[in-house]
Amino acid sequence: MPDSLLPPNATPLEEAIEETIAKPLPIYNQTLWRPDECPEALLPWLAHSLSVDAWDSNWPEQTKRDVVRSSPEVHRHKGTLSSIRAILAAAGYGAATITEGFGGHQHDGSISYDGAQTHVVSDSWAEYRVYLPRPITAAQAAEVRRLLRAAAPARCKLKALYFTEVAHTYNAAISHDGTFTYGAA
């Protein structure tokens, strides 16, 4: 190359690298930083550079873009209820309801027991429960737990996952192979 900055004793590898660098890129650099415009093949690298905590290569393309787009907001509020809700919504699990702190109830008859909560007195102030608006499979429950470990404060403990809709009725139409749960994951 006549305009080469390499010394006369440059190796063939160095010359090949210089030639590659001299070629114009097929896309603009700014495009690589925009989740909606970044090529799908480069989304994992964009996710890594934006510190996306939870990533699944099996997600649909739109879910990947949503997770990358929500990453700065999740990190801005990391460790709060809003970050947990944001990461679950971006991953396609809808608007989750989160209840936290099951301690401190007085046993004076003002609260009726309906079986929805256990009465364990330990670190109940750090426990939280997540109620999802739709049924999930056992594999999705594992993914939700992984997402929650990434977004929730380290001091908090996930007590249970629930969903508010019924996945199936007991009519022998499906086999019980462990894919679905009984309503609490």
* Helix fraction bin: 25-40%
Principal-axes geometry comes out as elongated
What's the number of domains? 2
Structural class: alpha+beta
CATH hierarchy class name of the largest domain: Alpha Beta
Mean pLDDT over all positions: 79
> End-to-end distance, in Å?
63 Å
Largest sheet report: 3 strands, mixed
Spatial order of strands in the largest sheet:
1-2-3
Question: DSSP strand (E) fraction?
Answer: 5-15%
- Which residue ranges are poorly predicted, with pLDDT under 50 across at least 5 consecutive positions? none
Number of helices: 6
* CATH architecture grouping of the largest domain: 2-Layer Sandwich
CATH topology of the largest domain: GMP Synthetase, Chain A, domain 3
- Calculate Rg over CA atoms: 24 Å
Describe this structure in words.
With 185 residues, the chain is an alpha+beta fold. The protein has 2 domains: 12-77, no CATH class; 78-106 and 122-184, 2-Layer Sandwich (GMP Synthetase, Chain A, domain 3). Helix content is 34%, strand content 9%. It contains 6 helices and 3 strands, in the order H-H-H-H-H-E-E-H-E. The chain has a 3-stranded mixed beta sheet with strand order 1-2-3, covered by helices on one side. Helix 4 packs antiparallel against helix 5 (81-90). The protein is elongated and about 90 Å long. The model has no long low-confidence stretch (mean pLDDT 79). This is Phage tail fiber protein. Pfam families: Tail_P2_I. It comes from Limimaricola hongkongensis DSM 17492. InterPro entries: Tail_protein_I.
